[in-house]
Design brief:
It is built from five helices and 35 strands. It is mostly beta strands. The strands form six sheets. The chain has a 22-stranded antiparallel β-barrel.
Length: about 625
């Protein structure tokens, strides 16, 4: 298998070199495609959204800003059909026992989340030891857009993309000169949020930076949360063919677990002190018949929890992709991925200090995708990834799809894709006191996703409708079970059959009034925690003159909080509103209210959510 991967790499290299020397410089043309139709997540290079086999949602910056949220994931939970993210308070998700921020995509997720992959500007983001992303590290400021693949994308991105992919794409300065923005919010539970950002571009050089700070005392005793994070992105365009860019971010957050609220007794849990950082360097090439990139990324973290858990982890890799367009309607894509991840963890308060693990794992993969457009209406897609893991050996991941565009108003898509997830270092090797035992014999999880969808536009795209039906069959899911000695341990003892329908609709009535809604129904053969059977969302935007009114309503039904001996379900409805007024050309003031119905509800078992909360603030843009 290593020989095959080397062969794919050699083929990739030869084609890349031939493309460089065979092309004339690309001709600059005016891009007339609307930005919501151009995506990178579905193919790793910019393509028309209609030409990829995956079902993909694109969340624009104005949608994120109108929510008033400083954390990104709750916004996605509302806007993206099939996606749900757990919460436990005013702000802050936490880690370890009692943590929230668990991501479920079409019923696949995990606690902690290891089946949905988060990318930052295309670079994988997950803790090297535990294998999950850190929900608190993803902020809503300085976001250009978010692209979400709903369903397995392991052919493109490998392990952890078994349930789907969330690609967070940050802002960069694109026009000459400077820009700057800042916002300040203050409200319930002594919560305040500060966000700043700005950039400068001259000639072919640009840079953009942002700094944010959040604090809350929390709506329960011992539920405070603080975070400060910084972000920087820069690029230099050598000519029409080559561009070098880099970005980095650093987030430091502290928080406390208020503990389970039950039987009128609450015992506060751990406090945490976490540092997360990342950086990437990308070299892009663009020719008439070929384009691609070479990406080097590194992310790391330090976790210090008062229970005595201390860890340092990392995740680094090299991703090379190149597209070739040698004849009309055809795109051949080749890629090579290399990842190395791991770290060291110890218990500092157990038996004078105990080392839990100090190890690393390596993945190397070859990727080939092929797309052919026929008669300007029919597009055929196929892909194959061969992934070799230092512990689990080789995994073959195919995908295939077809799309038919009758005209510029109607699009029909169908696809079959495989997803997989390699066991984490935690599941394989780490033994926590009073916790399930690791199992070094675990095998990768896998799933097969089948879907068909229709997208219809009306009245020159003033109305957009999307309906998608899906079926996911998963096997070898890793759950806690009993071994031969009757001790709890991790086992490949689970399977799943999830079926559902996703609906999305938005209408721009005129320049002042628009509304959007989405609904998801998921039929899960075996109940799982944190996935509602019904998820409905409706929002209305009304912008008359200097005023901006935004209202949203969300209804969640038949969501399991607990399964097993005692099954507990939750239903709730939330009504939120935000009003902004433009005092000056550069200055807006706003106020927002969440849970206006003052609902009593719980998303994370044992952690009741707050009632009505109020926030107010200002936004300045120069």
């Amino acid at each position: 298998m290593i020989t095959l991967l080397k062969t794919l790499f050699s083929l990739f290299f030869l084609l890349f070199i031939s493309a460089l020397f065979a092309q004339e410089p690309a001709v600059t043309v005016t891009d007339t495609i609307d930005i919501d139709e151009v995506v990178v997540t579905g193919s790793k290079v910019a393509v028309n959204k209609n030409q990829i086999p995956y079902t993909l949602s694109v969340i624009k910056p104005e949608t994120i800003s109108s929510s008033g949220e400083s954390s990104l994931l709750p916004v996605l939970s509302e806007q993206v059909p099939g996606l749900f993210i757990s919460e436990r308070g005013v702000t802050g998700f936490g880690v370890a026992d009692g943590s929230a921020g668990q991501i479920s995509m079409r019923g696949l997720g995990g606690s902690p989340t290891t089946r949905v992959l988060i990318l930052l500007n295309g670079s994988p983001q997950y803790m090297g030891i535990m294998g999950h992303p850190l929900a608190d590290a993803y902020r809503s400021s300085n976001i250009e857009r978010v692209e979400v693949i709903r369903g397995p994308a392991s052919t493109l991105y490998g392990s952890n993309a078994m349930g789907g992919v969330i690609n967070i794409i940050t802002k960069e300065q694109t026009i000459d000169g400077h820009s700057a923005n800042a916002s300040l919010q203050f409200g319930s539970y002594n919560t305040f949020k500060i966000a700043t950002g700005g950039g400068y571009k001259t000639g072919n050089f640009s840079n953009y930076a942002g700094i944010n700070f959040d604090h809350t005392d929390g709506h329960r005793k011992a539920s405070y949360f603080d975070i400060v994070d910084g972000y920087y992105k820069t690029s230099y365009k050598f000519n029409s063919n080559f561009k070098l860019s880099g970005d980095m971010s650093l987030a430091k957050f502290k928080g406390a677990d208020p503990g389970l609220e039950q039987a009128n007794v609450t015992i506060p849990g751990d406090t945490l002190n976490i540092l997360r950082g990342m950086g990437s360097l990308v070299f892009n090439n663009n020719f008439v018949q070929s384009n691609g990139s070479v990406r080097l990324f590194y992310n790391y973290g330090k976790h210090d929890i008062t229970s005595g858990f201390l860890s340092n982890d990392y995740n680094l890799g090299l991703v090379i992709n190149q597209n070739f367009n040698w004849f009309k309607g055809n795109t051949l894509s080749l890629g090579v991925d290399y990842k190395n991840y791991g770290g060291k963890a110890e218990l500092t308060k157990f038996m004078g200090g105990t080392e839990l693990v100090d190890t690393a794992m390596t993945e190397i993969a070859g990727l080939l995708t092929l797309q052919q457009e026929l008669f300007n209406k029919l597009t055929l897609n196929g892909g194959l990834r061969i992934d070799n893991h230092s512990t689990f050996g080789t995994e073959v991941i195919p995908t295939g799809g077809v799309s038919y565009r009758n005209n510029y108003q109607t699009l029909i898509k169908a696809a079959v894709s495989k997803g997989f997830r390699s066991p984490t270092i935690r599941e394989l090797f780490i033994q926590f006191p009073f916790a399930p035992a690791p199992n070094a014999n675990l095998k990768p999880e896998s799933s097969i996703n089948t879907e068909i969808g229709v997208q219809q536009n009306f009245l020159n795209n003033a109305i957009k409708l999307e309906i998608t039906c899906f079926r996911i069959k998963a096997k070898n899911l890793i759950n806690v079970g009993l071994d031969e000695t009757n001790q709890p341990t991790f086992l490949n003892n689970g399977d799943a059959l999830n079926r559902g329908i996703e609906f999305a609709f938005n209408q721009k009535i005129n320049s002042q009034l628009s509304w959007t809604t989405n609904y998801t129904y998921i039929d899960i053969e075996k109940p799982v925690v944190g996935t509602p059977a019904h998820k409905f969302y409706l929002s209305v935007n009304y912008y008359p003159g200097k005023w901006k009114f935004h209202a949203s309503y969300q209804h969640i039904a038949d969501m399991y909080l607990a399964i097993g001996a005692q099954e507990i379900k939750e239903n709730y409805s939330l009504l939120n509103a935000r009003i902004a007024y433009q005092l000056l050309k550069e200055l807006n003031v706003f106020v927002k209210a969440e849970n206006l119905l003052n609902q009593e509800y719980t998303i994370n078992m044992g952690y009741p959510m707050p009632g009505t909360t109020l926030m107010g603030g200002i936004y300045v843009r120069l």
